[in-house]
Write a structure and sequence with these properties.
By secondary structure, the chain is α/β, with parallel strands linked by helices. The chain has seven helices and 34 strands. The chain has a domain of 93 residues. It has a 20-stranded mixed β-sheet, with no helix packed on it. A three-stranded parallel β-sheet has the order 4-6-8, with no helix packed on it. It is elongated.
Length: 650
């Protein structure tokens, strides 16, 4: 019986010992884990990779170690591996047959190493390799090392030191779809370099010192994207297959576009020629591009928008050129244009009806031009227009009828318009029933005129229900009409930062609104009083009901203050000057008891008729009274006045 037990125990121990091993049991001790057929050996400070891995391993991660060289005997044979990651190491060379132990390898990642030498047979036997990433290395030449990866789908050799693409360097890559050569030192490409690449779809040659290119012979008729931007090209490269839909030529030194440059690219949808030295595009150079949808010409030296832009184009980028005007009739009634930006040009005038009939137009950007007047019929019947940007122009006048039937306009920007004697004819806001955002930041004259329009119930009758944001910050507003609440009943934001507000009783309504609503009244700083002096820099929302000033308090004190300041400047250092100032100070005390005319024409102390509303007078349908010009301190009139004052003192 005892012998039988010994035999049985020995048999059980044999089964346990000889049973199948798990991945964890055979995981290299230098690695972190071996789970789900993935061996994780990254960031372990390895000078050399482990040779043996568990059976069935599909992915080996060796990223972020200190591996220097990969040679024939670096790894043992393992036909299950499909993904090998060796990025972020210190590999300087790939020896012959370096990866021959992985016959089923599909993805090889060698990104961010120091590889300068790749032996010709380094990738031998990798017939199933689909993705090869050699980005951010020091490779100077392809030198035939791609001849064995005939089924490669994607090749990334960006950020290396390659100088030339020869006629046979890519010859074996008949199945490649994606080639990335960006950020190399390529100055020469052979005309037949891409001839054998029948399946090429994406080609990146950008950021290379290419000055000229040969007449390419492309074998692919399915090429979709070609990027040759950020080079030193002086002429348009090509020819390209008709299948190209995306051609990027920005940031070169191209001077002109000839009418034959894009002749055969009939499927082109995106063309970028931004940031070149373009002086002109020959007439007809774009006409045949009937599928073109987006055109980039920003940052050139063009003086006009190219004629005969195809009706299919939806977006045109013309910022930072030397455009003087936009010709009437430039866009046909069949145009699908929905986005036009001509920011930072020299446009002085938009001719009436220039955009008439553009039923798809959604956004117009005219910022930073030289527009002085928006004439009648400038923007008419643009039923789809959503946004207009007109900031940073020397605008002086908006004529009545400049905006008509703008039924879907929601955003209007008129900021940084410095003209103080602005002339606003009528009320353009009534033509924009769906307006939601109006920005008038740092546009003092226009803001004053608009406030007068808002305050005139005869001019502004119907409220704008959709308006939620009205930005009047950094203007010269001393008063805000209480009609703002009724004209824009759904406001959520009314920034008034940087305005010299007079805290008189006529402004108390604003404080009441501030403390009883969710409306935001500033972007940066709390709204404060500028005058009278006793309330200066006090937050409006904190002023008590009995602290609000009368109109005569502000106007009289301000007048005396200004008079004293001027006289002190002129006579402060003259004989008798102090006596004259004392006299003025005595006059100031008398002035406080004298009636002062208020905004409605009455004198302080008189009874207000019941039918007269206590509000500022309108300036007449938005037209602002012309302000008197300031006299120069050194002018003749100033000198005459000073002499007379001095005579009185003496």
């Amino acid at each position: 019986m005892r012998d039988i037990l010994v035999i049985l125990i020995s048999f059980l121990l044999t089964i346990v010992t000889c049973g199948p091993t798990t991945g964890e049991d055979s995981c290299p001790r230098q690695c972190r884990s071996c789970k789900s057929n993935i061996v994780e050996c990254g960031k372990q400070s390895l000078a050399a990779p482990p040779k043996v891995y568990p059976q069935g391993t599909k992915t080996i991660n060796l990223e972020g170690n200190h591996i220097l060289v990969i040679a024939e005997k670096t790894f043992d044979y393992l036909d299950s591996v499909e993904v090998l990651k060796i990025g972020g190491n210190r590999v300087v060379a790939l020896r012959n047959d370096a990866f021959s132990m992985f016959p089923n390898l599909a993805t090889l990642d060698l990104v961010d190493n120091k590889i300068s030498k790749v032996s010709k047979r380094a990738f031998k036997d990798l017939v199933k390799l689909r993705t090869l990433s050699l980005n951010r290395n020091k490779i100077e030449s392809l030198d035939g090392f791609l001849q064995y990866v005939t089924n490669l789908f994607q090749l990334d050799v960006a950020n290396n030191r390659i100088t030339t693409i020869g006629p046979d360097d890519l010859k074996s890559l008949e199945h490649v779809h994606y080639l990335d050569f960006r950020d190399n030192l390529i100055s020469r490409i052979d005309s037949q370099a891409f001839k054998n690449l029948h399946n090429l779809r994406y080609l990146f040659l950008n950021s290379n010192p290419l000055v000229t290119t040969p007449r390419f012979e492309f074998g692919s008729q399915v090429l979709e994207l070609v990027d040759v931007s950020h080079c030193d090209l002086k002429t348009v490269p090509g020819p390209f297959p008709s299948s190209v839909t995306d051609l990027r030529l920005g940031n070169n030194r191209i001077i002109q576009v000839n009418h034959t440059d894009f002749l055969n690219i009939t499927d082109l949808q995106l063309l970028t020629l931004n940031d070149n030295d373009l002086h002109f595009l020959q007439d007809g150079s774009l006409t045949h591009l009937v599928k073109l949808q987006e055109l980039w010409l920003r940052g050139n030296k063009l003086v006009y928008i190219p004629r005969s832009i195809p009706d299919s184009v939806r977006k045109v980028h013309m910022d930072s050129n030397n455009i003087q005007q936009i010709e009437a009739g430039l866009f046909s009634n069949q145009s699908h244009l929905d986005y036009l930006t001509v920011e930072n040009n020299q446009i002085r005038q938009i001719q009436p009806n220039t955009f008439s009939g553009l039923r798809f137009l959604n956004m117009l950007n005219f910022q930073e031009n030289q527009l002085q007047t928006l004439e009648k019929n400038t923007f008419v019947d643009l039923v789809s227009l959503n946004t207009i940007l007109l900031s940073n122009n020397p605008l002086k006048k908006i004529e009545a009828g400049a905006f008509k039937n703008m039924g879907n306009l929601t955003n209007l920007f008129l900021c940084y318009i410095g003209e103080e004697n602005f002339e606003l004819e009528g009320n353009f806001l009534t033509e924009m029933p769906k307006l939601q955002k109006l920005q008038l930041i740092n546009s003092p004259g226009l803001a004053d005129d608009l406030m007068a329009v808002i305050n005139d119930s005869a001019v502004f009758q119907a409220p704008l229900q959709k308006m939620t944001q009205l930005d009047l910050s950094y203007n010269n507003l001393k008063w805000v009409s209480p009609r703002v609440r009724s004209v824009f009943p759904n406001l959520l934001s009314l920034p008034l930062d940087g305005n010299p507000l007079r805290c008189t009783k006529s402004l108390k309504w604003l404080k009441d609104w501030m403390v009883s609503s969710v409306v935001s009244f500033y972007n940066v700083n709390e709204i404060v009083c500028e005058t009278p002096l006793r309330l200066k820099n006090r937050p409006i929302r904190g002023i008590a009901d009995n602290e609000w000033a009368d109109e005569n308090e502000v106007e009289t004190n301000d007048a005396v203050k200004d008079n004293l300041k001027e006289t002190t400047t002129v006579l402060g250092n003259k004989d008798g000057g102090s006596e004259f100032i004392d006299a003025l100070q005595q006059d100031a005390a008398v002035l406080k008891t004298k009636p002062v005319k208020q905004r409605d024409g009455r004198q302080s102390g008189t009874t207000k008729p019941k039918d007269v509303k206590e509000q500022p007078k309108s300036k007449g349908k938005g037209r602002k009274e012309k302000k008197p010009e300031k006299k120069s301190k050194g002018g003749k009139k100033g000198r005459d006045k000073t002499n007379k004052d001095k005579a009185k003192v003496q």
